[in-house]
Specification:
11 helices, about 75% helix, 2 domains, mainly alpha, Arc Repressor Mutant, subunit A, about 210 residues, Tetracycline Repressor, domain 2
Length: about 210
């Protein structure tokens, strides 16, 4: 939908995301968003009674985008799995304000905090199924269940906090270069558990990004 055909609600969401990304969620209020949009605060609170409601809407939008990508798939290949992560990381960049304020939001936004545990549990369950699918497809080999649990925990940690760390350690790099770095990190994490087939596919994929 073009901007001139956006609904008032969509304009609010779009401008809020833009301003939150530029300045940080903590430093932008509803009045500032309203002023930038040349509308009254009441126009915003009609759709989003509080700033927490508006931020929660952005969080739901990001969750929906990622849920369309992170799926339990049979016959999964390592290149396809890494491409899924690539797409998730790009979604994170688009909604970077949420990732950069992650800890603050869990402390302050009751709507996001109430949903987080079940969302993370579901995501980890899908990651575990992905690992088992990669075993069945002959790309990975684990000697015991705890190794899968370890890989899932480490990948979940990278997915949650990569953008915050990149914003500190790799601020001089473009978003694309940052994403490449963390995809390489995931590849190196998986490499000790790869079969010969898996090592070859990881090497080819990481060599093309």
């Amino acid at each position: 939908m073009s901007k001139n055909k956006m609904s008032t609600e969509e304009k609010i969401v779009s401008k809020a995301l833009e301003m939150f990304n530029e300045r940080g969620i903590e430093y932008v209020g509803l009045r500032e968003i309203a002023a930038t949009l040349d509308m009254r605060v009441g126009n915003i609170t009609y759709y989003f009674p509080t700033k927490d409601d508006l931020v929660n809407r952005l969080s739901l939008d990001l969750n929906r985008l990622n849920a369309e990508i992170v799926i339990d798939e049979v016959n999964l290949s390592l290149s396809k799995f890494l491409n899924i992560l690539n797409q998730v990381f790009h979604n994170h960049v688009k909604y970077r304000c949420l990732l950069l304020s992650f800890v603050h939001l869990l402390d302050q936004n009751k709507l996001i905090a109430a949903r987080y545990e079940s969302t993370q549990k579901d995501r980890n369950a899908v990651l575990k199924k992905n690992m088992n699918s990669l075993v069945e497809s002959g790309f990975l080999k684990f000697n015991e269940e705890t190794q899968i649990e370890y890989i899932v925990s480490m990948m979940a940690l990278i997915i949650r906090f990569w953008l915050s760390e990149a914003n500190v350690s790799f601020k001089h790099l473009s978003s694309e270069k940052q994403i490449q770095h963390y995809l390489n990190l995931v590849g190196q994490l998986l490499m000790p558990y790869c079969t010969a087939k898996g090592k070859k596919e990881i090497s080819i994929y990481l060599g093309t990004i």
